[in-house]
Design a protein that fits this description.
Number of helices: 7
CATH class: Alpha Beta
CATH topology: Rossmann fold
Largest sheet: 7 strands, mixed
């Protein structure tokens, strides 16, 4: 079984519980969604990677031309497709896939969304390259990612133990500044790094990055 297969099995197993769960910081989530909407236009074609059960994709879809949303979990995608049936008048396509296998479009996507994803991938550099390859010239990567290196030490120590007993997925630990440096290496220009949480400190960094004109564009 590959690493991707193992990850998919974990998310397939918890998909119903995940779908039934409530967003812990709804106000912070809505700020992120509103900020994202403000960066997009009605003519944009957008890709979301790691879309889960489609909540964000369906929130964004009415304001853009089309959204393609992928997740490695078949169970998550099945739920997303079911939810999409209740949202008429949008062009939203859900498919099983990763950053490396998500569909490409002629000319590239205007934006790629990656919410709560980059800390879950095994090879972040490869993921960032794959996203860049799918963006049009000057396209945006919009990501909101927990910077686990900034979280409580006890939480960081608990994650490997929970993973060992099947209660947590693979996660990697990095800071917001680490991620910004990785984006620069991968060929992005960071335009903004924000925190949208309602509490005093939010470890989830919201980053807007533009595909730089120079650098490699290999998948």
């Amino acid at each position: 079984m590959t690493l991707i297969d193992r990850d998919a099995a974990f998310w397939n197993k918890i998909a119903p519980k995940y779908a039934a769960g409530r967003i812990a910081d709804m106000a912070g989530y809505e700020r992120s969604v509103d900020r994202t909407r403000g960066l997009l236009t009605s003519s944009d074609v957008v890709l979301e990677i790691g879309c889960g059960t489609g909540t964000t994709a369906l929130a964004i879809a009415p304001g853009i031309r089309r959204i393609v949303a992928t997740d490695l979990s078949e169970a998550m995608i099945a739920i997303a497709r079911e939810k999409a049936q209740a949202v008429p008048g949008i062009d939203a396509h859900f498919a099983v896939g990763t950053a490396e296998t998500s569909p490409e479009v002629d000319g590239g996507y205007d934006a790629v969304l990656a919410f709560n994803l980059l800390h879950l991938v095994h090879d972040r550099a490869a993921t960032l390259r794959a996203i860049r390859h799918r963006l049009k010239a000057g396209g945006l990567l919009i990501t909101k990612t927990p910077a686990l290196a900034e979280m409580n030490l006890l939480i960081r120590l608990a994650i490997p133990l929970m993973r060992a007993i099947g209660k947590a997925p693979f996660v990697s630990t990095f800071s917001a500044s680490d991620l910004e440096a990785e984006l620069a290496v991968a060929g992005y220009a960071v335009l903004a790094a924000e925190r949208h949480g309602s509490k005093r400190w939010d470890p989830r960094t919201f980053i807007i990055a533009r595909k730089a004109e120079d650098g490699t564009d290999q998948p």
